[in-house]
Amino acid sequence: MRFSILPAFILLLPLGEIAGFVVVGRAIGLALTLALVMASFALGVVLLRRQGIGILRRMSSEGRNGVMPGRDLLRPAMTVIAALLLIIPGFLTDIIAILILIPPVRDFVWRSIAKRFVVVNAKGGFSDRPKADFRDRNPNSKVVDLDEEDYHREPDRNSPWSGKHLGD
């Protein structure tokens, strides 16, 4: 069974943020703690407005055109993610956002996710390859490429949703 870290992260993040508020609040006081949270929110909004939604549109259009989003798109995309993390109140998300803004960390993230990109173009993608070429692809790939003649669906006459049994 494959363990996913996402449910644990979603469950433990609010608890960690609360603990962070308590620790920082005791160290610097309530007023400065609230000022830091408001300052990180404002910085996140400024970063998000500066990058805008344009980078997400650009990544989407490059993906539709069959071009793998490159490193030149990684920096603005990571800045958008960092901005969203800064907007979320809390110190753990702020630390993650600051780490994302550091160039060596961005390069590490790029190296780790670039090998997972698979770009399939609806206009020509894998279907331009000969049929016997499917064995040459990555054996760990979860992509199955079928042409229209390879896949078709016929209704199941015995299915309760077919409408055949409604008049009985």
Automatic annotation (TrEMBL):
<feature type="region of interest" description="Disordered">
    <location>
        <begin position="130"/>
        <end position="168"/>
    </location>
</feature>
<keyword id="KW-0812">Transmembrane</keyword>
<feature type="transmembrane region" description="Helical">
    <location>
        <begin position="77"/>
        <end position="102"/>
    </location>
</feature>
<feature type="transmembrane region" description="Helical">
    <location>
        <begin position="28"/>
        <end position="48"/>
    </location>
</feature>
<dbReference type="Pfam" id="PF04186">
    <property type="entry name" value="FxsA"/>
</dbReference>
<keyword id="KW-0472">Membrane</keyword>
<dbReference type="GO" id="GO:0016020">
    <property type="term" value="C:membrane"/>
</dbReference>
<dbReference type="InterPro" id="IPR007313">
    <property type="entry name" value="FxsA"/>
</dbReference>
<keyword id="KW-1133">Transmembrane helix</keyword>
<feature type="compositionally biased region" description="Basic and acidic residues">
    <location>
        <begin position="130"/>
        <end position="139"/>
    </location>
</feature>
<protein>
    <submittedName>
        <fullName>UPF0716 protein FxsA</fullName>
    </submittedName>
</protein>
